[in-house]
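Appendix C: a fully annotated inverse folding record. The material below is reproduced so that readers can follow the format used throughout the book. The structure is listed first as tokens, followed by the designed sequence.
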């Protein structure tokens, strides 16, 4: 419970009508969650305008309305606050309501197209191993030390975010590592947070359905760095063309990591096998359990972050070398069939190319590489043909299938993908809409020593069709089908 005026601290107000001393018992941006004593924030969304729900919020007991446009009807006893940007106001209000928890621990945000979950998961495990109470906010799961809280988004909404951070603080967490998605940055889910540092992994084609142009997507990521306070750190991948852009207008201390460019944190890949990566990192030779060149970047980002947070280099490397990858990232499904079965969350062109190039490096030449891949419905359509082309160019056989069609017709998504198949690639491609059948077909094609990659869903345990999340786990289906078809003796 807090007074409205205190919750509105740092929010720039345009006009006020009503009592600023009103006691507020909860915050909501969804009218369906309003109760007696709630302050309702009306946000204009992609589907509807939250301003439409002001009167129903008041009926449900809202005592304050924060909005961009004042309603005609302003019942007595309810405070009305006009702001320029409701979503930004919501960020600051949520931070104030929960006692500004981000100021009470070291919060590090990781952004970039790929590698966010991998980096924050490693950082969480690392800081646990170093003995700290640590929080995690990620696509896969949110954690307070080892306690798991379900994650619905890569970056939660401002209220959930600050509430969870406050729980972390109350449980003694000194650090929190969080993914900061471009949607969250643009939608101000992170407004009002105090970051100790931010990390940029890379930028490639993704989410153009939402950001419309690549420039807008770059700008969204850059905002995280533009808003960092003086005294915090910005750590960017300097091998990525957009690394320097992220640093252009930041007040934070600037740091770089790279394999190729001049940088503060450098590594050299000594060996890269299906067992892991051997790196020369800061003059030390260290083995890591993560697979693939691209993970050298993630490991460097994690190493740099830990050192910037004041940890000792050798201790960081010692602990980091013991850590496992995030679930569903280059995860091997172990069977006795002699077939190498891999599940990976590659759902962008760049990720798919990286994973298949990594597989290419391991193969000795005779194996058949079979890729099963789909593209999400109601998401970026432009990436569909590109991903199909990459799958074909870098595999021997490809099965196009469904990956969370959501409210689109699976056949339409598959047609978009097929547009990327060149005539010469056509004969190596099959289209099987049902993902289980597609995985089954891949298993039936595979012979011992062959490699199957099932890409796009990684850790996900569902297939989302028309708003319903049906149980589906690539790892389980792959294991079940391999054992069924290639009955081990
Ligand atoms: C496109 C997008 O990002 N949408 C997010 C956005 O919803 P929206 O703008 O569409 O909201 P809306 O449905 O138009 O409603 C507008 C407002 O009216 C309110 N409302 C609505 C109905 C009602 O009866 N009463 C009411 O008050 C809503 O609560 C909302 O405040 O704000 C919501 C609240 O924070 C999010 O849950 C929602 O995420 C949707 C479900 C989603 O799928 N988002 C994905 C694309 C996403 O955010 N992904 C990123 C990145 C993924 C990654 O690369 O890892 C993530 O961080 O997860
Ligand atoms: N540094 C990297 N560069 C390029 N590709 C990567 C990198 N790290 C991971 N990948 C690929 O991207 C996939 C997703 O990785 P991860 O989940 O860590 O990314 P993310 O940024 O959290 O994704 P999301 O936007 O969905 O949250 C991995 O399964 C792998 O194929
Ligand atoms: N965080 C990403 C995940 C995509 C994963 C893929 N399986 C899909 O559903 O498109 C998104 O929401 O766009
Ligand atoms: Mg993620």
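Designed amino acids, in order:
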């Amino acid at each position: 419970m807090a007074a409205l005026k205190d919750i509105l601290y740092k929010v720039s107000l345009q006009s006020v009508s009503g009592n600023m001393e009103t006691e507020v018992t909860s915050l909501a941006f969804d009218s369906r969650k309003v109760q007696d004593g709630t302050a309702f924030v009306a946000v204009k969304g992609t589907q509807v305008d939250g301003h439409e729900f002001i009167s129903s919020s008041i009926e449900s007991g809202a005592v304050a309305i924060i909005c961009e446009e004042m309603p005609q009807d302003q019942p007595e006893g309810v405070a009305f606050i006009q702001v320029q940007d409701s979503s930004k106001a919501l960020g600051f209000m949520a931070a104030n309501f929960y006692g500004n928890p981000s100021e009470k621990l070291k919060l590090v945000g990781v952004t970039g197209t790929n590698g966010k979950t991998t980096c924050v998961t490693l950082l969480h495990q690392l800081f646990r191993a170093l003995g700290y109470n640590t929080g995690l906010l990620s696509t896969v799961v949110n954690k307070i030390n080892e306690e798991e809280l379900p994650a619905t988004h890569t970056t939660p909404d401002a209220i959930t975010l600050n509430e969870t951070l406050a729980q972390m603080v109350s449980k003694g967490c000194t650090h929190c590592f969080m993914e900061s998605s471009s949607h969250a940055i643009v939608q101000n889910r992170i407004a009002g947070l105090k970051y100790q540092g931010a990390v940029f992994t890379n930028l490639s084609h993704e989410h153009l359905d939402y950001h419309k142009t690549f420039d807008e997507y770059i700008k969204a990521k850059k905002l995280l760095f533009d808003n960092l306070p003086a005294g915090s750190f910005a750590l960017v991948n300097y091998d990525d063309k957009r690394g320097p852009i992220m640093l252009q207008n930041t007040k934070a201390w600037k740091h770089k990591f790279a394999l190729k460019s001049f940088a503060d944190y450098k590594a050299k890949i000594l060996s890269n096998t299906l067992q892991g990566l051997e790196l020369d990192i800061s003059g030390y030779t260290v083995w890591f359990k993560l697979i693939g060149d691209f993970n050298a970047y993630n490991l460097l980002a994690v190493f740099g972050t830990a050192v910037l947070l004041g940890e000792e280099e050798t201790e960081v490397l010692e602990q980091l070398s013991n850590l496992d990858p995030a679930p569903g990232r280059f995860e091997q499904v172990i069977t006795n069939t002699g077939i190498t079965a891999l599940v990976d969350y590659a759902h962008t062109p760049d990720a798919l190319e990286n994973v298949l190039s990594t597989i290419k490096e391991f193969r000795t030449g005779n194996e058949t590489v079979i890729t099963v891949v789909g593209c999400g419905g109601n998401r970026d359509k432009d990436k569909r043909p590109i991903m199909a082309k990459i799958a074909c160019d870098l595999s021997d056989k490809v099965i196009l299938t469904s990956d969370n069609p959501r409210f689109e017709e699976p056949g339409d998504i598959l047609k978009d993908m097929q547009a990327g198949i060149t005539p010469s690639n056509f004969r190596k491609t099959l289209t099987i809409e049902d993902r289980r059948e597609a995985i089954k077909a891949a298993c039936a094609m595979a012979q011992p020593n062959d490699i199957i990659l099932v890409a796009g869903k990684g850790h996900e345990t569902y297939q989302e069709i028309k708003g319903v999340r049906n149980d589906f786990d690539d790892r389980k289906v792959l294991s079940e089908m391999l054992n069924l078809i290639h009955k081990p003796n």
